[in-house]
Specification:
about 160 residues; 2 domains; three-stranded antiparallel β-sheet; about 40% helix; about 25% strand
């Protein structure tokens, strides 16, 4: 554990990230509390924030900090995202679009090429020239981006 004052100073360094200014004071306090609780030392807290700033454009969440600190402490695989990925913009997730059909057996999904095809199906009410039935709709689902990779960092 580190002192709240040191944790606060480290979390303030995240102000260089894209969405830091959107965080409410309670959310920033959660980041401070998480760092104070999970960081074994001030140098380790500084190193984790350095690592986050080097690899991400968005502000960390408490879960991100816990994962990084646990990964550092236990030398376990930690999810890393490419902050320069055009597909997910550093979030690690992409939206995929499907034509969904409800059947007695459940939900059948047929993947659409992208948002433009999904928009075309929604606006025209047809898919490949066939009108959509009452049991069909377009759905969007989040999926892991191909840029996410598991790496093992030495302690």
């Amino acid at each position: 554990m580190i002192s709240p004052a040191i944790a606060t100073a480290e979390i303030r360094r995240l102000s260089a990230t894209t969405n830091y200014h959107l965080r409410k004071p309670e959310a920033l306090q959660e980041l401070v509390d998480t760092l104070a609780q999970y960081a074994p030392s001030a140098p380790k807290a500084h190193a984790v924030i350095d690592q986050w700033l080097a690899e991400n454009r968005m502000c960390a969440t408490p879960a991100d900090l816990r994962d990084l600190l646990r990964g550092e402490a236990e030398n376990e695989p930690v999810q890393r995202m490419s902050s320069g990925c055009a597909a997910c913009e550093g979030t690690g997730f992409v939206i995929q679009y499907y034509l969904c059909t409800r059947t007695e057996a459940g939900l059948l999904r047929q993947r659409l090429a992208g948002w433009q095809e999904a928009a075309d199906v929604c606006h025209s009410g047809a898919y490949h020239g066939r009108p959509l039935s009452q049991s069909q709709s377009v759905g969007e689902f989040a999926a892991r981006c191909a840029c996410t990779a598991v790496s093992r960092e030495p302690q």
